Amino acid sequence: MAGSVLGEVFKISTWGESHGAGVGVVIDGCPAGIPLAEEDIQAFLNRRKPGETRYSTPRKEGDLVQILSGVFEGKTTGTPISLMVQNTSQRSKDYSDIAGYYRPGHADYTFDAKYGFRDYRGGGRSSGRETIGRVAAGAVANKILEELGIHIVAYTKQIGPFVCREDQIKPENIEKSPLKMPDLGISAEAEEYLSGKMKEMDSVGGIVECVISGMPAGVGEPVFGKLDAALAGNIFSVGAVKGVEIGAGFAVAEKTGSENNDNFYMASDGTVKKQTNFAGGILGGISDGDDIIIRAAFKPTPSIFQKQKTVNCQGEDIEIQIKGRHDPVIMPRAVVVIEAMAALTIVDRLFVGMTSRIERIKDFYDF
Amino acid sequence: MAGSVLGEVFKISTWGESHGAGVGVVIDGCPAGIPLAEEDIQAFLNRRKPGETRYSTPRKEGDLVQILSGVFEGKTTGTPISLMVQNTSQRSKDYSDIAGYYRPGHADYTFDAKYGFRDYRGGGRSSGRETIGRVAAGAVANKILEELGIHIVAYTKQIGPFVCREDQIKPENIEKSPLKMPDLGISAEAEEYLSGKMKEMDSVGGIVECVISGMPAGVGEPVFGKLDAALAGNIFSVGAVKGVEIGAGFAVAEKTGSENNDNFYMASDGTVKKQTNFAGGILGGISDGDDIIIRAAFKPTPSIFQKQKTVNCQGEDIEIQIKGRHDPVIMPRAVVVIEAMAALTIVDRLFVGMTSRIERIKDFYDF
Amino acid sequence: MAGSVLGEVFKISTWGESHGAGVGVVIDGCPAGIPLAEEDIQAFLNRRKPGETRYSTPRKEGDLVQILSGVFEGKTTGTPISLMVQNTSQRSKDYSDIAGYYRPGHADYTFDAKYGFRDYRGGGRSSGRETIGRVAAGAVANKILEELGIHIVAYTKQIGPFVCREDQIKPENIEKSPLKMPDLGISAEAEEYLSGKMKEMDSVGGIVECVISGMPAGVGEPVFGKLDAALAGNIFSVGAVKGVEIGAGFAVAEKTGSENNDNFYMASDGTVKKQTNFAGGILGGISDGDDIIIRAAFKPTPSIFQKQKTVNCQGEDIEIQIKGRHDPVIMPRAVVVIEAMAALTIVDRLFVGMTSRIERIKDFYDF
Amino acid sequence: MAGSVLGEVFKISTWGESHGAGVGVVIDGCPAGIPLAEEDIQAFLNRRKPGETRYSTPRKEGDLVQILSGVFEGKTTGTPISLMVQNTSQRSKDYSDIAGYYRPGHADYTFDAKYGFRDYRGGGRSSGRETIGRVAAGAVANKILEELGIHIVAYTKQIGPFVCREDQIKPENIEKSPLKMPDLGISAEAEEYLSGKMKEMDSVGGIVECVISGMPAGVGEPVFGKLDAALAGNIFSVGAVKGVEIGAGFAVAEKTGSENNDNFYMASDGTVKKQTNFAGGILGGISDGDDIIIRAAFKPTPSIFQKQKTVNCQGEDIEIQIKGRHDPVIMPRAVVVIEAMAALTIVDRLFVGMTSRIERIKDFYDF
Fold first, then answer.
1. How much is the pTM?
2. Which ipTM value was assigned to this complex?
């Protein structure tokens, strides 16, 4: 209950600090029979690895994952899957200062308020390295979704004032942009903007958008177990996220019902479809079969190299200048984290929803 | 797991349909010794009751709550508190049409996709009457927060393009506005706007803001159990919510780190404070002692009286015109629902957090 | 978390005190499409109703159940099912004494130690009336099991030294015995024994046995989620149970491996069977397709009419003589409670187990 | 939900197979500030290590534990504690036969029935090595209990027909007996009995007793969350356990109320005490301050070296003779596993119970 366990049926338990022995995750509730190799997971981890572009921390980590349990002869066995990444590039001395004061925008003060003290090296458990467990587990969830024909993709939608144009969002361009912005024209402009802010020893915020396609209709529970509530809550748990919206999102505030309702129609394949998708693929908390579209707002990295005012642990006002290795922008490395949270949520909700109809359960237990 | 149970320690289980015998909630995990009477709960229910202004459905419900268990000689006993409100004003015939088709923007289609059929009377379990259980449980949570000196207030921040001015938001004005907009000048303009849309048989969206004051620092768990993630997920579970943000929210996308960081300083009372509150009272998922400020975007009521295109259950394209009794705007009755969700979340997280330090546990179990 | 919520997927939340407005349960996680009427539940409640024989409390309660939600046109809808039984025969004055002292063998002292005070009327939440919620929910679970071809029956195996003979246990005799002992010869002897103890103002203990037949193999999770662990824990939660065993049970202590191992063989229908069933239908925590056989030991009713020594709330040694209406033997009314706990456990574990194989999940989500 | 996660507040997630890379556990919900070193855990692991006496498998494992996270400068930080033991002595070829058939008394058949296949090496996840995760986590729970003055001890009470005499049970003798029987006279007799059965290539069953002292009154929740129910369920989850009883246990079946009721009296220190402890320290599911006494019946090891009849995976009746390294008796190595399960349960229930009274919560959140 200390917060590092997620999921009701597909349950994960992440662990590890920035400057401890390593980071990892245990997955309990993965079905048997899914082909799984370390490369499947490594591919996802490589996308969040630091040091890949000039816009991310130069900390170099191999971030090599090991599967310690739950896989036999290349397939999941249905028992817990333990995944571990060892920490290798720890420069704890960069952080010796931090022990004594509270960095603005960070969790130093609140960890102290909660626990009485903290592992200050690199932010300890509140470090971005905590997301390795999420991404590794998300990679396994993605293998399940692959089997079911569900596909998830996330990208940087906006950096500062630069927003990808809807008609220019091409998934194949995401990896071509160092900022993971699929509108390459906008990406170039955003790079220039970001470079300027980096020179000013500042950081920038933005928005990540995530699209989940191939969803069946009928996933999600009414009331508190709504699919959008689960997605929103889980995505909100990623560090630096300050807002989450689905479909038309906050824009609904200025819309009328006649503008915002998505009319149903019969598609030529005999299925029920919507003319528009302002709902973002979820109605009444249950998937409607359309793409799920969700966005998360990321604050600018709080670790900036300018001088800042704050207080120390002795209760004195001081001025500090942060050192160390920090990303000036979070989104490019966060897109894979958002994909992971989406995958974890969808798998868990799919599994929770498997008992909605008695006739399906009867079919299931025919053994 | 079908979605109507909420909370890890302070656990509620809501039940009831729009046109069944009634609606209610069972609360398990309420501490013993809290003074509780039906009036405490009724006061909250009255604030969400229909038929109070011309901007809400004319359905008249007494919405009288009964305490069925868990209270003895005026105080909670620590055992489950069962609360029930009987339905009295059911005009099911208004809904006989709905059985046969899928209303745009509603959960009719997705319930059918999930369960194979649905209780179509008044939306069944996806009706707004479902929120009575939330509000009743929230009233009990509020009694706990009162004991701890924590105060929650919500109000309509925005309707269509009309946004309350920061310096005009006066809590004492909330109840003076039929729209629950504490900036009475803006409220009057919004009323005019809303009346215009009602004449066009249309509905409007908006934003509710919620402020939680009196919080101790140190509440919330790292990683998945973050306080903001819990608040966001739970508030997102309220029907018609399409986005949630905290503190500076989506505006962080266009801010830089130097603009967005809240600098700490020592207050004259010897406590650590922040110069600004862009964080919205939560850092790293843990409360920092400042006010928690959270906003939810509500879509316009999907039940509008204009003709709309949709499909029927036989898979034919049809045109419909919805009858019945519907609110043209959701926020005025939703503010108390948002307060309830905030109260339920804060109490649960306070309770979860009670094991963070061994020395506190030792003090606790001195009996 | 205060203890009245049970189940991971098929989740129930019971409420109510002996002398409050009523008792009830909310079931969340029941699949849609199951025929359900109040009579289905009433049949089970009638089996635990007081006042049916001379061996049960003369308190007369109709114990009539009402379905308040979750059923539409005679079938479950997949949303929460709220069930309520109103209390009608409350003679609280019988209990005014109890307020001031701690009855031996009862929870009076421990409730005070936990909560600081208690609802002393009829034992409040620790009363046997609490089991109405269990039985009502169990009746719904039984409807699900019926659909799947799983059958549960419990009976009194032993009272005092009188034990039913294996070859005389005939299910059709259970209801013929006022003590629910299917060996009618032994039942008659036990009645005589019990009558003797009643004259001495004493009470007697015994054992209930429960048989679950029609189980598929493969239900239950490894390690902590073992099917036998779940059954044992849930059955142990019934008041007055002091021991639970499965299959050969405590007798294994004196057996050797060669005596206790159940050899497998191929049955003529091509399935794997066991020559014996010392395991009690569960191997490694997972059902093996054989009958599950579980037994619970019940202590003698602690409410006896003899003089007893105890202490009062002022901390003085006193002598008391309990009044009121009390069963001199618990098992006859408890058999249906044990069946209910077994049914609730089996349904929950069946549902939890629905994600064990990816190929089954693929079949499931073909919509 | 696949079964390897335990606890509501003090939550553990175990992983690992007999012949995989290792075994381990992640603990989430441990308070900050508890001194913890690898030696604290190693001491417990050494007690379950194989190869220590002639009555345990000669498999030699160092079973050295590593703390991978959650500890900083010698104290727990409140964040997840990841513990790992690498497997070193794997002789998988011993098990190549097992792949093709189902051992009597083992989980081979049920794992296949559940998952469609299994990791057959050494029993995979159903191996006794799975208990390393339990014991490691239990060692951490024990550190918490030490701080609170609660002490847990378990020992072998019975092997075959040899039962320790009450007045000879001396805790200081437990480690002097290779069978962990504190009555050394009985232990010697049991050794002789066991040696005889080993010569016959057979195995023996028995009973472990566990005593929890120093408990405060008031721990445990009513109804489903009873402390005895939690202890029973969790202890039942240990492999080979076929029965659990508390206090007088199954003997209550032949007792009367006047014999079985524990009368209260005022002790000279002004506290409420019981004249006897047939209840086993728990009344109405809540601790009464007395010692908690619980017993578990263990079946004889199913791996015996005699010829046995069974079936193979092709559905043929066959005869087998098991090879490999197996304990002829489970209890001596299981006592520390039972202690671990007791410690994990008590800590979790203590933490769950911390919200039972509002005045205590007010004291707690004074920061």
1. 0.97
2. 0.96
